[in-house]
Amino acid sequence: MSGKNNPYGNAFVGSFFKTLKQEEVYLWQYETFSDVIERIPYFIEDVYNKKRLYRPPEEYERLLAKNSSREYMMC
């Protein structure tokens, strides 16, 4: 958590909700609550999580090692 009066404290959450609203909520006309329950998890798992650029450090290092060994084999 960030300190008191830190404007960057909620930046990640704010960015996520902005993306959720612009790319999902405003584009669909939900008629029932079950429509929301069905679409929001789909958006988070299958659209947002696959599209974002951030990777956890362990995953990034694993991919970096994999790509480095592949380049070494091609030389």
Strand/helix succession: HHH
| Euclidean distance between termini CA atoms | 46 Å
Uncertain runs: none
Largest β sheet strand count, sense and barrel closure: none
> How many domains, as an integer?
1
Morphology call: flat
Strand content: under 5%
Task: Describe the 3D structure.
The radius of gyration is 18 Å and the shape is flat. The model has no long low-confidence stretch (mean pLDDT 80). It contains 3 helices and no strands. The chain has one domain (11-74). It is mainly alpha-helical.
Which tags fit this structure?
single chain; 75 residues; mainly alpha; 3 helices; flat
Secondary-structure map:
Blueprint: H1 11-23, H2 33-51, H3 57-74
Describe the structure concisely.
Helices cover 67% and strands 0% of the residues. The chain contains 3 helices and no strands.
